[in-house]
Amino acid sequence: MECVTKVHTRSDFKMELEFSTGESRLFDLRPYLDKGVFQRLNDVSLFKQAYVAFDTVCWPGNIDIAPETLYDLSVPMLQTEH
């Protein structure tokens, strides 16, 4: 299973992720911002508090997203995007 090792948030609700595979991928959280607990992440200040724990991305308030989802629904980043 791919584990998240680093997360960097962008102001457009996208996250630059690094996985245990060595891959850098870009995940767009915007499609989730109207669903369940993710609605709270519409607050940019909360979204920007993303951190890595338990091999995935988490936020304060017991919000997290499965690492499989992050990997499967993200796109590879080009070296120029870093």
Task: Write a structural description.
- The strands form two sheets. The chain has a four-stranded antiparallel β-sheet with strand order 1-2-3-7.
- The mean pLDDT is 95.
- A hairpin with a 2-residue loop joins strand 4 (51-53) and strand 5.
- With 82 residues, the chain is mainly beta.
- The chain has helices at residues 44-47, 67-72, and strands at residues 4-9, 14-19, 24-28, 51-53, 56-59, 63-65, 75-76.
- It has a single domain (4-81), classed as NE0471-like N-terminal domain (NE0471 N-terminal domain-like).
Distance between termini? 24 Å
Name of the CATH first level = Alpha Beta
| Helix/strand order, N-terminal first | EEEHEEEHE
Helix content: 10-25%
Q: Which segments are poorly predicted (pLDDT under 50) over 5 or more consecutive residues?
A: none
Structural class: mainly beta
Radius of gyration of CA atoms, rounded to a whole number: 12 Å
Overall number of structural domains: 1
> What general form does the structure show?
globular
Q: Tell me the fraction of residues in β-strands, as a range.
A: 35-45%
Name the CATH architecture: 2-Layer Sandwich
Question: What is CATH's topology name?
Answer: NE0471 N-terminal domain-like
The largest sheet is: 4 strands, antiparallel
Please provide a brief summary of the model.
By secondary structure, this protein is mainly beta. The protein is built from two helices and seven strands, in the order βββαβββαβ. Helices cover 12% and strands 35% of the residues.
Keywords for this entry:
single chain; 82 residues; mainly beta; NE0471 N-terminal domain-like; three-stranded antiparallel beta sheet; 2 helices
